[in-house]
Amino acid sequence: MDQKQITEKLRTIIKPYVQDEEAFSNIQPQTDLLKDLKINSAHLVDIILDTEDAFDIEISDEDAEQMLTVQDAVAVIRKRMNE
Amino acid sequence: MEGLFIGNDIIDIHSLSQHPRSGQPRFRNKTLSKSEIKWLLTSTNPAFDIWKLWALKESAYKCYFQQTRHRFFSPKKFICQWEVDIPASEYDLAQVSTPSGIFFAKLYQKEHYLHALCSNSWEHLNRVIFQVFNIQSLNANDLSCQLRAQALLMIAQQMNFLPEDLTWDDVLGFPQLMHGGQRLPYRVSLSHHGVWGAVGCSEEIEGINTGTNSV
Hints:
The complex is a heterodimer of chains A (83) and B (215). With 83 residues, chain A is mainly alpha-helical. Helix content of chain A is 59%, strand content 0%.
């Protein structure tokens, strides 16, 4: 799975938790999940769990610490998928 | 520990249905420390009581961020411990261990919401003024504007300013109050969830001890 496919799959995971639809329609790699998309921080836990299920990976606490932007999340997913 | 910092977090009890996983061990294991899980497993309603810990953690994170300006997501690094020996009827008291030290928190449980207030000093925590208000909007940006307008009004009234003289500044990544281009010596924390918004505010007063002072 290439970066584009990972990003697209991640987008579908994030979508139900987004509160700023306009920011979501203009999503970029540097888009911040909490600040830009206004995702509730508790839903960040849901996104981590959904990502684990969708990509069949385990996201460690250390990985989760830095999952603040779309590109952060993609980097974590790629790292775990390549293990 | 230099300076005084505050954080607050509100949780709309009626919006908790949006978090159906909160009773599941996987959710718990991503958010809680071992000691918190141990406490939660003694609860008769763990799916609800986890939100008490979450509110405390969030309020402590906001406090921590004011202090360090370090952003990260690690709820497990903010470890709550209830203060069982301190009598308090209106609220529960807790200490929250954070990467930058021990913070102190109050948790109010009302019919419709949970509200946590946190500071790096017990004495400072007791000086925090706060207000919870109902806000409703379908638009996230409008919600934020409403929250800030309500907060500014409350602070202006409490601190004897004209609301029109106060503005917000977010250059440090958290809201600060400005008056005539100067930052006011107040710490402010904003929060919203569901139909509730909350503001906490406290004056930075010289001479208040920080750290592990008594209640």
